[in-house]
Every structure is written in structure tokens, then in C-alpha cells.
Design a protein that fits this description.
The complex is a heterotetramer, with two copies of chain A and two copies of chain B. Helices cover about 25% and strands about 20% of the residues of chain A. Chain A contains seven helices and twelve strands. Chain A has an eight-stranded mixed beta sheet with strand order 2-1-3-8-9-10-11-12, sandwiched between helices. A two-stranded antiparallel ribbon of chain A has the order 4-5. In chain A, helix 1 packs across helix 2 and helix 2 crosses helix 6. The radius of gyration of chain A is 17 Å and the shape is globular. The two termini of chain A are about 20 Å apart. Chain B has ten helices and twelve strands. In chain B, the strands form two sheets. In chain B, strands 1, 2, 3, 4, 8, 9, 10, 11 and 12 form a nine-stranded mixed beta sheet that branches. The chains are: A alpha/beta, B alpha/beta.
Chain lengths: ~240, ~270, ~270, ~240
């Protein structure tokens, strides 16, 4: 039944809903949900947009959907190889409309930490590190991130380390979609099986929710597109995302 | 014309001394010079500085074997579904190695400064990031009065750039298919360029389409031909990631020697 | 996929308004967007700012037709055995146009600043050159204490980059054979990219070798297909410089109209 | 008779004699004598060197010798296209061993003017302009130039405008070869049909000449190589170089 969300489809589909007609949209390394969101949007929406990715692909037509979001197969069927220096320069000069970026911790201003849990110099957990964020988040026209866990450990009042500032335009978790308004994240919608109360309870930072509603269910085409991308449910299984 | 630049993998790795700064090509599990990295381990290299925007298997196995003193990196992970790089993570948390954490583009800016022959390179963004204070980066005001301030990254000049390529000529001319990731700027920034290639190609083929050459031979110090040398990673379009083997590598019970023994460069007679 | 970007040469040139800043691709008599330049003349364009490291025929004929207000250039000549560009030279000497004299690489540094999204770009050399004072360039001390001082060039962001290419797809993907000169950085620095191409090529051919694409279609505003459009210059490997015609052009007795009337874009029905 | 110089062969051959084994040597735009010197050295000398040029050629084997020294045919037979940004960056980072650069005026320190005769703002003659010099002359390991006219107008005490500083390592004219010693040009040799006196008389700047001798004649192989490059004497005619 297409009107039911799975935690996995909720994240991928709501990331896809940030994509706008005619824009240049980018997905990077270590970003399977963002990669799937871009490929889903190509199948589920009528409008055209320019999908570029970290594998150098420009409007690619990959013959398979890779486990790794930087797999060279993502440049298959591309008319060009638009490699790393090129897409970063495009972003810093203002030509990247929408950039999907990963995060470990997000704060109420949409700033991110991907460097370390605990003190950077004596980390409890050494995280992957800087990546695209510090340069892309402040320079992309819009940046959007996701967390597969929604908790006070991931959606925090204070970041252990500010890897990237500039502020996410949108954040998607298994139970909520946030968008930025006047430099703060506000709740746009919540998972219909969740609630405003639950989102508040599991979020470390305070946020406004005046206009928040239950997230509209996936459309037939969104559901069909995701099924086509993940027919065996492999990506959904591997992602191991739970509502609670 | 110059004489052949083809050497064995052993002799190629032997060019890198203990303590050298080495930039590694490719990204995560894709087109990394992994056979070369394993050869460094076999030769017991120590105190290396590894420079790479997105290292994974390479920095992890080098840390696992105790070859690394310092990492200058943007994002470090195994990728795919494997998450963090466990031996790298432990090495950093236990302070066995020094980490200079970058954004991928700040590391690239440092490489650009070296490639351009200037002491520093301005980079977009970085504003509001704790990485700036962490690395003591400087901010420079636009001397042309725009009022803009820009972060500048000091020159990063590795002793070696080592890349894994699809095809080379006997003179060291190098082709990469699909994305070349950061390999272009690495080969321009480093003092010396070493190449591991899947295949030796005829000079005539390169002359027929010189636009495809990423690195001209005169910039290349030496080359080793190692088919499958990016294993267990991918080398487009020849082969994909060997995920089962990466899983075996990740198994903390499994031994490094067993993994190393399964490498394709073992026993393969190399063109030399 | 996006709809076709192919337009007529007339409509392509019509995108450039009076007073626009236009970077022109190619070098001297080689692979310049000369049909496009002639079309600007036919449309009576005025007060253009021309940006090019090594202009020749293009800047000269534009000055001859009175289209130019300012030139930002490195080295200006007809080359071959033709020496100086006569109408450009006269325009500068009579102060009919403003010249911003660069070294080729300082102009490129300005384009790099625009392409990289930073306000200025350090460049090697320049020390001791009167060009620095002439252009009021600033020198910045290395904030990392090397004691080195480096000249920095302010961002140069043309409104348009116009290049002449060998092959394009209907989506505007662009290939250049042989050297691409400065075209790559021009297409990254300019606000909009316009392409004139010898030939429309199948998308499948580009997809079979995407590494050869210099400019991806999404960066290209519009394209005109004009076989022979680099005349009287060369377009490798299709045709060489038409030296007799360049000689006729240089003949101060000869009329500009006669030269323009011999251009290959005349009467050729263009793909549109 | 190979032991006789023509003014043309004198310039081309003596430029070629600055090329050294194993080095990276570059010829640029508007530089026919330098292009011919590099091609001559490939034919006349036993040692190998890396010849790169402004057409993107790396060790090219052009099927014809072009009139224009930036003609794309100069990349024919090349294994790579090493385009403008690449060879300039190579130079500024210290990887260019020998760089041939044109000049209109040269002073006693080997600085050059290619910008204007007279005041830059009110030029008697507007010259081609900056080109490679201002960046390449100070950064190339060695730079060498030539003048087809040797006079007090071209070899000057004071430049009308200093386009490029850093100092030429060598200068070749129809009657003399200069090399740099301690930041000054000194006479290395003079055309056997000229003399030290004539060189002094026709040079605007003072120079030392302690070790100067008559220029050794072209070798059989140098003469044969130039004949092979210019069988019909077209380049020699077009160059219109006179001893006096």
C-alpha cells in the first residue's frame, strides 16, 4: 500500500521532495540515501533537473544501482566526466542549487558535526571527518542532510565540534522533516505514525512547529520509483533504519 | 625517445622512503593504488604521511600495519555499508597517528598552491567551521576592497603522488577512464609521480587520442603494471568492488596476512 | 533530458548585448569563434569588453568595425608572419579603446578566482614587472611565515565565454580536439557559455567516451553549428589557416565588407 | 658550405645550443625561431630532452613545420595534450628548465619590454604585450630570447617599459650571443663576420666580453637539420633577417 511509509522510504522520498525543476542537484560520497533520492526524483517527477554526482556523472543512466554512492557506475551513460575539482568549483562559485551532505550531529541552526563525538583532541568516537561540508554547506544555494537515527545524540542543542556552518536548508530523519526559516530549523512535517510530541521529545534543540503537519504519504509514482530502484529491498535492509 | 619507465611493483614501492609524504589517488574503494599500498606494507615502510581527500581501505590497512605517522585527509571511511575505517579510527583515538583534518576542498586548495607554485591558495566556504581554528588557517581580506574575507590554505606538496590508472605507455603516459577523482591535481602538486596501471598500451593508441592522457610521461617517475591492482576495490570499467573480500578484511578476527596473501599481485609475474 | 540548445548563429550572437564582457576561446589564428565575432559585427554590437589571453584576428576585426570599448589581454598579434594586429594597434594608440594589459597567466589567475568563487588568485612570477603598478595589483605576504610575497589578481568574471569547438551534442556537451588552449577556465569563469561548433555529434558518441567532453551541456547556454566557423583561422584537425585570406584581410586597401562577404557562414543554411 | 652562418641560421642554431640533455624545454606563441631551434635540436643532437610547446604538444612529431608557432600541428604525434594552464603551472612551480620567450627590447640585465615603444600611456608603437614573460621569465629555471634586429633601439640601456623582469639567461641576435653572469648579460660570442667592436657599437648597454670569442660555425648536423626543416628556405626568406 503506497500510502504507508517505511522508515527507509520516508528518508529517501522526503530527500527527493527537496529537488526542484531545472536545478543542479548533487549527491556525494557515503550518501546512499541521497543517491537514491536523486534517482527516485528522475523516475517519479515530471520535471527535469540536472543530476550530477561525485563519480563525475552528469545526467547518468547507470545500468545498476551501486552500494557505494561514489561507484563509477554512477557516471555510466553520462555525456561528460565532471570530476571533483569541477563540481566543487561549481559549488563555491554559486552554481550548485541543491547539495546533499551527510552529518553525524545537527544543531538547531542546521550546522553539522562529522568530525568527532566528544572532544576533538580526545574523541570518544573519531568520525569520518570534514568531507564536503565545510566548503559546500556555506556555498551551495541549498544543502540538505539526513540522519537515520533521530535522538538527542544526533539532533543536538550543542555540537561537539562545528565541522560545517552555513546552515542546512533541510533535514530528514525517520520521523521528521525540518526546513530552515530565518537561520533556524523549523519542523515542516512529522511521520504520520509519529507525532509533534515525539519529535520534540527526541530532539535536542528547540524548534518552531506552527505550520507543521503529518507528512503527506508517498505518491504512487514515488513508491513505484523506489520499488524499481530497490526491487529486492536490499538497500532498505542494509540501511537498518527503525522508526523507534 | 626516453627509455622505458616500467619497473616491478617491488621496485616502484622501493622508491618511497620511510617518513615520506605520499598522496594516494582514487576515492574510498574505487581506483586506489591498493597493490602499491600493500607492497609498502610488505617492505615494512614506517612513519608515512598519507595525503588524500577520501581515503578508506588504503589508510586503514596502512594503520593496521603500523606504517603511518600522519594523515592529512578530508573524509575517511570504508563506504558502501561498512561505515568507519576501524584500524584508522583506533589509530587516531589511541593517538598512534596525527590527524590533520580537512574538508576535501581545503586539502585540494593546499595541493593547488603547490601545483601553482604559490605559498597559499584561497578557498570558498569554511566560514564558521571549527576546522579553521583547529588547523590555524589564516583569513585574508580582499585587497581590492570588496570587503570580502577569504580563508587561505598553505601549500601542500607531497613527496609522491601515487595513482592507479587504466592504461600507460612505456614512457609513462597515463590514462584514467571514468572519473579521475583528485588524481590530476595530486600529480601536479607532488614532487614525483608514481603510477600503477592495469595495462600497458601501445604508444600509437595514445597518439591517436592524446586528449585522453591525464599525466604526460615526462612527469612520471616510474610505472608498474599490476592487473587487478586496485583490488579489493574497483577499477572502472574492468572490475567492481570485491565486497565479500572487504567484509573478510573488516573481520577483526581475520588476519591481515591472510588478506594480503589473497591479493592479485601475489605470484603474478609483473612486466618489468 | 533537456530540450535542444541548438540555435542559429544569428540568435546565438543576439544573446550578447551591447557593453557585455566577452571571453573568446582559441589562440591567435587557431580555433577562435570567428564566425561568431563576425556575426557580432553584422549585428552592430558596441562597447564590448573582450577578454582573451592571446587574441589576434578577433580583436583586430572587432576594433576595425568599432565594436570594442575595452580589451583585457595578454599578447595581441596576428602571428604567423603578419606581426602586429593593425586595427587593434591603431585603436589603442588613438585611445579609441581602453587596454588592460596582462601576462597570459595573470589574466588566467583572474579567471581562476572567478571559477573558484574567491575574490582574488595568487599567481607565480610578476616580480619586477611594471604591469603590477600599471594594473594596481596587490602583493600579499604569506600569512604562514615563509617570508614569501605573492602577487594576487582580482577576480575576472566575463558575462560570456564564447568558444569554437569541434563537436557538440544537441544538449550542448562540447568536445575540442588538440589543445583546448584557455577554453576550459574561460567556460568555468564566465556567467554564461556560448558554443559554436563544426559538427553536431550523436549523444551516444559522447556517452561512449565522456572523458573527452570539455564542457558538459548543463553549463552551456546555447550552441550554433557553423562548419568552417573558425575561418580564416584553423580548426584542428578539420582545416588549416587560410593564409591568403588573412593576407587579403591585412591589406589596408581591401574593404572589410569584401572579407566579411567571403566568410563561410554566409549563405550556409545553419542547423537550427 | 656548413661552416658559413646566415643571419637566420645563426639565430636558430644558437638558440638550439642553449638546450641541454634531459631538460624540459618550451616554445611558445609568436616564436618561430624558438620552435625551429627545438625541432633542430631534436634532429642535430644525440641527447634527449622533453620538448613541450604552446600547442599542447609533448615530444611531438609534426607532419609539417607550421608558419605559426602555436599551430595545432605541433601537437601531432604527441602522447598527450599538455594545455596552457598545465605548462604555465609547471613553470611557476619550478618544473620548466628552459623557456624561450620573445622580446622587443632587452636591457643589460636581460629584462624585457614587449609592451610599448615610448610612454605606455601614449605609445609611439603599441607592441603585442605581456604574453608569457612577466610570469615565466622570473619562474623558469632559464629563459632565452632573440632579436632579429641588433641595434641601440632593441638592445637598450633603459627599457621604455619593464614588461618582464627576472633576467634572461641568454640572448641571441644576428651578430651576437649573450649569456647572464651575476645578473648582467655578458658577451659569449660574436658572429664571425662581425666583431666585438661592432657588437659594442650596436648595443645600447655596456657589457663584459672577457671570454668572448667568434661563434663556432654550425656543425654538419646542425646545418643538415636546419636544411631539413626549411628545405625551400621559406622560413629564412619570411624571417628577413639581415646581418647589418
Amino acid at each position: 500500500m503506497p500510502d504507508a511509509w517505511s522508515p527507509f522510504s520516508y528518508i529517501v522520498t522526503n530527500l527527493a521532495r527537496f529537488i526542484r525543476p531545472g536545478e543542479v542537484t548533487f549527491s556525494g560520497v557515503n550518501s546512499t540515501p541521497a543517491m537514491l533520492a536523486c534517482l527516485l526524483a528522475k523516475r517519479a517527477y515530471d520535471f527535469d533537473f540536472t543530476y550530477i554526482n561525485v563519480a563525475g556523472g552528469v545526467q547518468p543512466s547507470p545500468s545498476k544501482i551501486p552500494i557505494s554512492s561514489s561507484d563509477p557506475v554512477l557516471a555510466e551513460g553520462s555525456n561528460a566526466i565532471f570530476a571533483n575539482e569541477d563540481f566543487y568549483d561549481l559549488c563555491t562559485r554559486g552554481g550548485m542549487d541543491l547539495c546533499f551532505l551527510g552529518a553525524a550531529q545537527v544543531d538547531g541552526e542546521g550546522r553539522t558535526n562529522v568530525s568527532a563525538i566528544g572532544d576533538w583532541h580526545n574523541p570518544k568516537v573519531r568520525l569520518p571527518g570534514g568531507g564536503g561540508g565545510a566548503v559546500m554547506l556555506p556555498t551551495a544555494r541549498r544543502a540538505v542532510t539526513w540522519r537515520t537515527e533521530h535522538s538527542k545524540r544526533t539532533m543536538v542543542e550543542k555540537l561537539d565540534f562545528v565541522t560545517a556552518s552555513g546552515g542546512m536548508h533541510g533535514v530528514v530523519t525517520p520521523i521528521a522533516v525540518f526546513v530552515k526559516r530565518d537561520r533556524r530549523l523549523v519542523l515542516q512535517s512529522w511521520h504520520p505514525e509519529s507525532s509533534l510530541e515525539e519529535v520534540r521529545e527526541r530532539t535536542g534543540f528547540g524548534f518552531e512547529a506552527d505550520d507543521a503537519v503529518a507528512t503527506p504519504p508517498p505518491t504512487e509514482r514515488e513508491a513505484a520509483a523506489l520499488r524499481a530502484l530497490d526491487p529486492a529491498g536490499t538497500f532498505e535492509r542494509d540501511a537498518r533504519i527503525r522508526l523507534r | 625517445m626516453p627509455t622505458s619507465k616500467i619497473v616491478s611493483l617491488h621496485d616502484l614501492a622501493a622508491l618511497v622512503p620511510d617518513g615520506a609524504s605520499v598522496a594516494l589517488g582514487g576515492s574510498f574503494l574505487h581506483r586506489g593504488p591498493f597493490a602499491f599500498v600493500r607492497e609498502l606494507i610488505r617492505q615494512g615502510r614506517r612513519n608515512l604521511e598519507i595525503v588524500k581527500q577520501s581515503p578508506g581501505y588504503d589508510i586503514d590497512i596502512l594503520c593496521r600495519a603500523g606504517c603511518v605517522a600522519k594523515a592529512r585527509a578530508g573524509i575517511v571511511a570504508m563506504e558502501g555499508n561498512f561505515g568507519l575505517a576501524p584500524w584508522y579510527r583506533r589509530a587516531v583515538e589511541k593517538k598512534q597517528i596525527v590527524l590533520e583534518e580537512h574538508a576535501c576542498m581545503t586539502l585540494t586548495a593546499g595541493l593547488r598552491a603547490a601545483a601553482f607554485g604559490v605559498p597559499f591558495q584561497p578557498v570558498g566556504g569554511v566560514h564558521g567551521s571549527d576546522l579553521a581554528a583547529l588547523n590555524k588557517w589564516a583569513k585574508v581580506a580582499d585587497p581590492y576592497g570588496s570587503g570580502e574575507e577569504v580563508w587561505v590554505i598553505p601549500s601542500i606538496k607531497p613527496d609522491f603522488a601515487v595513482i592507479h590508472a587504466n592504461e600507460v605507455t612505456v614512457h609513462g603516459d597515463t590514462r584514467v577512464y571514468g572519473t579521475f577523482n583528485w588524481d590530476r591535481i595530486m600529480t601536479r602538486a607532488a614532487r614525483k609521480v608514481l603510477v600503477v596501471a592495469e595495462k600497458l598500451e601501445a604508444v600509437e593508441a595514445f597518439q591517436a587520442r592524446p586528449e585522453l592522457t591525464l599525466v604526460p610521461g615526462f612527469m612520471v617517475e616510474a610505472v608498474a603494471i599490476v592487473p587487478g591492482g586496485a583490488w579489493p576495490g574497483s577499477c572502472w570499467p574492468s572490475y567492481e568492488v570485491d565486497y565479500p573480500e572487504v567484509e573478510r578484511y573488516m573481520d577483526t578476527e581475520g588476519s591481515l596476512d591472510e588478506h594480503m596473501a589473497r591479493a592479485p599481485e601475489i605470484g603474478v609475474s609483473q612486466v618489468a
